[in-house]
Design brief:
By secondary structure, the chain is mostly helical. It has two domains: 78 residues, DNA polymerase, domain 1; 161 residues, hpI Integrase, Chain A (Orthogonal Bundle). 57% of the residues lie in helices and 4% in strands. It has 13 helices and three strands. It has a three-stranded antiparallel beta sheet, with no helix packed on it. The termini are far apart.
């Protein structure tokens, strides 16, 4: 029964819910781990079983990731009448940390170190600007093809949940991209290539951004969103540009706006400046 149930659950989250392949694989692995740990039929587990399994994970983020898979599985079982008792375990509370982000000055200062006389240098320079200008995930950037850029707009086709969205690109990023593509004599549908002409890997992209900015590519996504929020952009517009399915996910950036406002008041208000 367990195998048939897992196959049905996998089809449900992969097709009906349209979760991306990595999330589907992760959920299935977590449910299998739960089953192996408990050693009993999945339809017979109860709240105590789940809590006992979760108690072995000290990291709250790891715990919540496992719990997300378990709750999704249990909800599926209840919805389709595999089990009558509905169980949902609340997530562990995790303190909200402000996402790390870089200012335009920090980014431009870092990429000025790139030697743009070489093709690789032009690629690295263009890639960093592309990530900052679009706010796309690194997987989305690496999957982008030349045909996905039309009239200064980027079509993001490989987003989470297979959703599609359009993002405008800043002229400076487009100029850097054109300079890179003009020099490249490798013909490929993909934009970002390694020296062999193969699609650039996530590891290589990480190393490029880390080398010049000291951060991961995802920080450039945060930097994109933070710059828009601080500049006064509507939260729903930022949600659309980032491809977030829920506004709640985007709301973390309002904390950045509040932090900026607080620092501005503390710096300039006459009463705040008095000690």
């Amino acid at each position: 029964m367990n195998n048939d149930l897992l196959v049905a659950f996998e089809e449900h989250i992969g097709i009906t819910k349209a979760l991306d392949k990595s999330t589907v694989s992760s959920y299935i692995a977590d449910i299998k781990q739960l089953h192996e740990h408990l050693g009993k039929e999945l339809l017979h587990i109860d709240s105590e079983d789940i809590l006992r399994f979760l108690s072995s994970f000290k990291n709250k983020r790891t715990l919540n990731r496992k719990l997300s898979a378990i709750n999704s599985f249990l909800n599926f079982c209840h919805k389709y009448d595999f089990r009558h008792k509905k169980i949902k375990i609340p997530m562990a509370k995790i303190p909200k940390n402000l996402p790390k982000y870089l200012s335009l000055e920090q980014i431009m200062s870092g990429i000025e170190l790139i030697d743009r006389k070489s093709l690789i240098g032009k690629r690295d320079y263009a890639l960093i600007l592309f990530l900052y200008a679009s706010g796309c995930r690194i997987s989305e950037a690496l999957s982008a093809s030349r045909n996905d850029i039309v009239d200064a707009w980027l079509k993001i086709r490989y987003a989470k949940g297979e959703k599609e969205r359009m993002v405008p690109l800043a002229p400076v990023a487009l100029d850097a991209l054109k300079a890179y593509l003009v020099e490249s004599d490798i013909r490929s549908e993909h934009i970002w290539l390694n020296y062999k002409g193969d699609m650039l890997s996530r590891v290589s992209a990480y190393k490029i951004v880390k080398k010049y900015l000291g951060v991961s590519p995802h920080v450039l996504r945060h930097s994109f969103a933070s710059a828009l929020i601080i500049g006064g952009a509507d939260l729903r517009v930022v949600q659309e540009l980032l491809g977030h399915s829920s506004l709640i996910t985007t709301q973390i950036y309002t904390h950045i706006e509040q932090k900026e406002l607080s620092e501005t008041v503390n710096r300039y208000h006459p009463l705040r400046s008095k000690t």
